[in-house]
Design goal:
417 residues; alpha+beta; 5-stranded mixed β-barrel; 4-stranded antiparallel sheet; 9 helices; 16 strands; 27% strand; elongated; protease; PDZ; transmembrane helix; membrane; Zinc metalloprotease
Length: 417
């Protein structure tokens, strides 16, 4: 249960910030965002704020921002259709009532002759079956069907109406938000826990290590080992690792006083190699500037490592059965959570970078796939046919779901069978 909760919290946060990136840039571009959802499937919770419905759905495996115009608008009026119109004080349409018109006794009943809900923003119809009138539609206005209100999206509020640059930034904002989230988390870890520094200073000691038994203390500055000067933590580690079960004379400076401490590293065999260990962690420091620098370094390092891993997958050096899906990530998240909050935060940051990179891949149904179509549009000077693009994304999504099933089955066999 702890593993499941940890996974939901971590993955939910990653999805939330990814979709928040899309939402903020879409709203900035003036796009009508109908829904901001975390998860898929049936709604568990929903609340409407201004134009957008914010929902939490049952399956915590992703999320989405439903933007007007991304899919064909389902709102339409046909000639001869009987509808009710709610008008404001200036005679402009505020709501178009499709059914259950008895719920609105003040509605003006008309037989539709013509309507344009995107460009002209009007509806004409026969009142009392005789008089033809034209009604302007105000902004915002709503289409009411089965007692559910759907905001009418004029063309200028739709995704497709925006410039190529605005659409590109709206889609790109999701993956970028994941990189920003990772950077912020790494900076927070540095501010709260500290960040490792390559200085010749003894860090935290393990309870049963050789260093504690010999009398070393956290904060001791190591001047030399066996008479050889050391200037970095890396030099200390290399010296200890290369002298298992050999007594080393540590010349240290403690509280301004110099002293010598004899330490015998314990021998431990790792992957066939015997090395020395004394039970000391790398020294840590805390500062705003250092935390920001460490955050940038960590973000760059893990970005490079994940990209390299994807390169190995493409070249066949990394096999498909080595991938993990939601089940594998949930199990790993639970194990990391047992190690403490800072390890969980770091794990979440790494997953956030991974999510950002995966979404940038030029594959159908991913953000990168949509950006690829935008690049084609920039070269051609006109957008790709929406139906053809939609079919490509649909096929890509189906293949992606198939891959997810395969990876999930591998995870189940690996961890539970």
């Amino acid at each position: 249960m702890e593993s499941i909760i940890s996974f939901i919290v971590v993955f939910g946060a990653l999805v939330f910030f990814h979709e928040l990136g899309h939402l903020l840039l879409a709203k900035r571009a003036g796009i009508l965002c109908r829904e901001f959802a975390i998860g898929f499937g049936p709604k568990v919770f929903s609340v409407k704020k201004k134009e957008t419905v914010y929902t939490v759905r049952l399956l915590p495996l992703g999320g989405f921002v439903r933007m007007a115009g991304e899919d064909p608008e389902m709102i339409e009026l046909k000639r001869g259709q009987i509808v009710g119109l709610l008008l404001d004080g200036d005679g402009r349409v505020e709501k178009i009532i499709v059914n259950h018109k008895d719920d609105y006794p003040n509605a003006r009943i008309i037989e539709v002759e013509d309507a344009d809900l995107e460009h002209g923003m009007y509806v004409t119809g026969y009142v009392d079956g005789e008089r033809l009138e034209r009604f302007a539609i105000k902004e915002p206005a709503f289409f009411v069907a089965d007692r559910q209100e759907i905001q009418i999206a004029p063309y200028h509020r739709q995704f497709a109406a925006k410039t190529l640059g605005q659409r590109t930034m709206t889609i790109l904002a999701g993956p970028l938000a994941n990189f920003v989230l990772a950077l912020v988390v790494f900076i927070l870890i540095g501010l709260l826990q500290g960040y490792p520094v390559d200085k010749p200073v003894i860090g935290e000691l393990t309870p049963d290590g050789a260093a504690r038994a010999a009398g070393l203390k956290q904060g001791d500055e190591v001047v030399a080992i066996n008479g050889e000067r050391v200037d970095t933590w890396t030099e200390i580690v290399n010296t200890i690792r290369s002298h298992p079960q050999e007594t080393l004379q540590f010349q240290i400076r403690r509280d301004g006083k110099d002293m010598t401490v004899a330490v015998t590293p314990e021998a431990k065999t790792i992957q066939g190699e015997t090395i020395g260990l004394i039970g000391v962690y790398q020294p840590m420091e805390k500062s705003v500037f250092g935390s920001v620098k460490q955050g940038l370094t960590e973000t760059y390092y893990w970005t490079r490592e994940i990209v390299a891993g994807l390169g190995q997958l493409i070249t066949g050096q990394f096999h498909l059965d080595m991938l993990s899906g939601p089940v594998g990530i949930a199990v790993s998240t639970g194990k990391v959570a047992e190690s403490g909050i800072y390890y969980l935060m770091k794990w979440g940051a790494i997953l956030s970078i991974n999510l950002g990179i995966i979404n940038l891949l030029p594959l159908p149904a991913l953000d990168g796939g949509r950006l690829l179509f935008f690049a084609i549009e920039a070269v051609r000077g006109k957008p790709v046919d929406r139906q053809k693009e939609g079919m490509v994304h649909f096929i890509g999504f189906a293949l992606l779901m198939l891959l997810m099933l395969v990876v999930t089955w591998n995870d189940i066999q690996k961890f539970f069978l």
